[in-house]
Design brief:
The protein is of the alpha/beta class. It has three helices and three strands; from the N terminus they run E-H-E-H-E-H. The chain is about 40% helix and about 20% strand. Helix 1 links the parallel strand 1 and strand 2.
Length: about 70
């Protein structure tokens, strides 16, 4: 079995999430619409890479990024 890197897309726009999922079809992609969803996903199945929107409804992406560091 071939390993596929896991990419987490965090974006409140469903259109953007769907588009990125299709573009990144050769990878294992998870999508969430909020920072809270990202926290849950990180705990359950940590990604290799995260694409993080800056303007999110619950917490802005830069604040979340500094939280992760």
């Amino acid at each position: 079995m071939t390993y596929k890197p896991h990419i987490l897309v965090v974006d409140d726009s469903e259109t953007n999430r769907d588009l990125l999922s299709r573009i990144l079809g050769n990878y294992r992609v998870s999508t969430v619409a909020s920072v809270q969803g990202a926290r849950t996903q990180l705990a359950l199945d940590p990604p290799d890479v995260m694409l993080l929107d800056v303007m999110l409804p619950d917490v802005d992406g830069l604040t979340f990024l500094s939280e992760l560091r």
